[in-house]
């Protein structure tokens, strides 16, 4: 098959990566990636007002980022393993910073969506390589890796928690554009410290990019997410929607067949035979699908049904976001003490209970906020405890020289889940504000069922 061959061979740096600085720098990368997810959700009503965007257009502002992100994660992970995770991480920070500037200056919905695609490309270069840099810095010290991943996860959770509040207050005072510009100093700081504090990771020879796999993966993901988004407007039984799902399935099957016969696949199928890897990827998909889909729906609910300002909507997210950071740290400590699987299964059961509680209350203007807050608090605790254990389980049996690829597979599964969750749950509430209460109930029921399946899969796959 056609491939791009790497002829450069590099030796690993002797300094194992200075774990403290590695954690700081990779956390900055994770923060900018996560910050734009929640901040952009809060900004959606303001963007719709300025540009006259439809619900489908608003979903594409979110999904364009997620789709580009998910499409290139595998390629970025392989590139990190073969050319150096530090180098690819740096490139990601540069691309993300430039794209954030373009988002802040966008004159139309289409330009904003294009800039969000560029942000997704930058994020794809950042995320798997940040996890790979952590794996390299910790070496074979599994306890240290769990602790660093829990703190890394907590930094992303802090961005999730702060995003709605920061975004809400910035939007209320300055409009939606500055919410993208705040990434610029963070990216600049990350670039400087990466260049001066972080050593390059180990690489290996004979790097061949799987172009056929990249193209078919991108097409399958594009078809799947785009079809789910359009299903909200056209209806699930529309012939074009059904054809879109069929085409996504055909291309997806072709992708896996290509990976099975390719000598240097972008997705090494042998990873899924490692103990716990497939289970961790499934759990990560479920967590992202339910969490980010819920954030999208709640952004519309708080502002369009309850009439909250962007700042108030940001504060209303606190029960969901404020304790995630602490829950991530607790989940990491539990994983180090009792193993990966109890926090994963137990956390998803708690999150399922939160969604189950919310399913008994319609998302209308009369819904008691204290009940909503309790449900969101349970979801936050559950997903926060499960996430670091899930990531640690995925990397536990992977060779260090393949940590970038393994991280990319895991983050791809999570991003696909997030993109499909936003598209699917957005379709549930599409058609006007009057559809949010009934669609919200369906969101909670579907989330609870998926989380219960995830908990069962985590326990059985241990």
UniProtKB/TrEMBL annotation:
Localization, UniProt: Membrane
Transmembrane segments: 21-44, 56-76, 88-107, 113-137, 149-170, 214-233, 239-258, 279-302, 308-331, 338-360, 372-396, 408-430, 442-461
GO annotation, cellular component aspect: membrane
Membrane topology type: Multi-pass membrane protein
Domain called Major facilitator superfamily (MFS) profile: residue spans: 22-462
A Pfam short name: MFS_1
Keywords: Membrane, Transmembrane, Transmembrane helix, Transport
Single GO MF descriptor: transmembrane transporter activity
Superkingdom of the source species: Bacteria
Protein name: Major facilitator superfamily (MFS) profile domain-containing protein
């Amino acid at each position: 098959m056609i491939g791009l061959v790497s002829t450069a061979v590099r030796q690993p740096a002797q300094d194992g990566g200075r774990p403290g600085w590695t954690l700081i720098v990779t956390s900055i990368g994770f923060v900018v990636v996560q910050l734009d997810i929640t901040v952009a959700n809060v900004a959606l009503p303001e963007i719709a007002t300025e540009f006259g965007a439809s619900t489908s257009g608003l979903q594409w502002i979110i999904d364009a980022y997620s789709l580009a992100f998910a499409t290139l994660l595998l390629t970025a992970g392989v590139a990190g393993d073969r050319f150096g995770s530090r180098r690819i991480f740096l490139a990601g920070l540069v691309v993300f910073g430039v794209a954030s500037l373009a988002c802040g200056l966008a004159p139309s919905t289409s330009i904003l969506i294009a800039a969000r695609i560029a942000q997704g490309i930058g994020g794809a270069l950042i995320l798997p390589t940040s996890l790979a840099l952590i794996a390299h810095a910790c070496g074979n010290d599994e306890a240290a890796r769990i602790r660093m991943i829990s703190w890394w996860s907590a930094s992303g959770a802090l961005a999730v928690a702060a995003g709605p509040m920061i975004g809400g207050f910035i939007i209320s005072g300055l409009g939606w554009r500055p919410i993208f510009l705040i990434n610029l100093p963070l990216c600049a700081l990350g670039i400087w410290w990466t260049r001066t504090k972080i050593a390059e990771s180990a690489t290996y020879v004979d790097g061949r990019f799987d172009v056929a796999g990249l193209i078919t993966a991108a097409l399958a993901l594009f078809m799947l997410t785009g079809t789910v988004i359009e299903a909200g407007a056209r209806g699930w039984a529309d012939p074009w929607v059904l054809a879109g799902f069929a085409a996504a399935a055909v291309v997806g099957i072709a992708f896996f067949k290509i990976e099975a016969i390719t000598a240097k696949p972008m997705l090494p199928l042998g990873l899924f035979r490692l103990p716990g890897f497939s289970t961790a990827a499934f759990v990560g998909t479920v967590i992202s699908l339910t969490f980010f889909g819920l954030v999208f729906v709640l952004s519309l609910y708080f502002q369009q049904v309850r009439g909250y300002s962007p700042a108030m909507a940001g504060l209303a997210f606190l029960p969901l976001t404020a304790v995630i950071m602490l829950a991530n740290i607790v989940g990491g400590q539990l994983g180090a003490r009792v193993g990966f699987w109890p926090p994963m299964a137990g956390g998803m059961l708690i999150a399922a209970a939160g969604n189950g509680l919310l399913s008994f209350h319609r998302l209308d203007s009369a819904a008691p906020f204290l009940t909503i807050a309790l449900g969101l608090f349970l979801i936050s605790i559950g997903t926060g405890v499960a996430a670091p254990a899930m990531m640690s389980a995925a990397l536990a049996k992977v060779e260090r020289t393949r940590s970038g690829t393994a991280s990319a597979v895991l983050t791809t599964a999570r991003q696909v889940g997030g993109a499909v969750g936003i598209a699917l749950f957005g379709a549930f509430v599409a058609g006007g504000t009057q559809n949010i209460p009934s669609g919200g109930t369906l969101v909670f029921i579907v989330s609870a069922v998926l989380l219960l399946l995830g908990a069962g899969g985590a326990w059985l796959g241990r």
